[in-house]
Amino acid sequence: MEPTVVTAQQMQAYDKYTIETIGMPSAVLMERAALSVIATIAAGGFDLSRVLIVAGTGNNGGDGLAIARLLHLKGIDVKVLLLGDERKLSKANKEQLAICRKYQVKIGHSIKDFRDYTLIIDALFGIGLTRDITGKLSEAVKKINASNQPVVAVDIPSGLDATTGKILGSAIRANTTITFGYLKVGLTVGDASKRVGKVIVKDIGIYAPEF
Ligand SMILES: NC(=O)C1=CN([C@@H]2O[C@H](COP(=O)(O)OP(=O)(O)OC[C@H]3O[C@@H](n4cnc5c(N)ncnc54)[C@H](O)[C@@H]3O)[C@@H](O)[C@H]2O)[C@@H](O)CC1
Ligand SMILES: [K+]
Which residues participate in (6S)-NADPHX binding (predicted)? Predict the structure, then answer.
């Protein structure tokens, strides 16, 4: 059977329906998203000696922080590079950040050499990206791509429009993309083919009533 393919707008509506109408707590979905990434990288033969999570300020960054905490608690050497305006953290991101701080997960804000890491997890932007990535964030994306290190993208490679597959300014080139709930149109069209790597769809408990 062909997988169901959705736009960013449809996915946002399904997230909202699952959280607000069904009553599934958003934190449960985020934890399942993070656990699905952990299971995929554990099975994928990646070198987990030194892992860098690049996290943005939205819920995609929240996924990244949850992944960082789970890896940290497994004794893996993990560091978070938190990028963007910290005054604009989403509610879930703030919660995940506070938990990470209590567990003393290493968190930094400045871009160093991405070649120091054996695996980079891209949690900068997900389906909420609406405009070109610019400035320090764009610089990070370009440096990550230039590092030639393995990259696992959380939900979608940051910089790809989840609906059109267009590159908004600059976009991560991933080896593997783990996308949640349903396949996004933007992972299958436009500039996606050179950016997404192997695409894996993971069920995290988001169900759209019409499917
Ligand atoms: N709703 C939920 O509870 C869940 C969300 N999930 C994750 O959340 C992601 C969506 O999260 P968000 O909607 O917070 O969005 P993102 O985390 O994709 O984007 C973050 C924020 O960045 C801002 N932004 C957009 N373009 C920008 C640009 N070029 N430069 C700077 N800032 C920019 C937007 O205003 C947005 O609020 C999904 O892709 C998925 O990874 C999953 O954890 C599953 C559950
Ligand atoms: K991402």
Answer: 59-63, 126-132, 155
For the CA of 129, the nearest ligand = 1
Task: Write the burial class of residue 106 (CB in 10 Å: 0-12 exposed, 13-18 middle, 19+ buried).
Answer: middle
Nearest to 73 by CA among 104, 49, 33: 104
Identify whether 208 is part of a domain.
Answer: no
Q: Is residue 99 part of a domain?
A: yes
Which residues are known binding-site members for (6S)-NADPHX? Answer: 59-63, 126-132, 155
User: Which ligand has the shortest distance to the CA of 123?
Assistant: 2
Q: State which residues form the domain around 142.
A: 5-202
Q: Distance (Å, rounded) from C-alpha 86 to C-alpha 53? A: 16
Q: pLDDT tens for residues 139-180?
A: 999 999 999 999 999 999 999 999 999 999 999 999 999 999
Instruction: Band the pLDDT of 1: cuts 50, 70, 90.
Output: low
Is the predicted pLDDT of residue 12 greater than 80, yes or no? yes
Instruction: Let me know if residue 100 belongs to a domain.
Output: yes
Looking at the whole model, is its pTM more than 0.95? yes
Asked if the ipTM is above 0.90, the reply is: yes
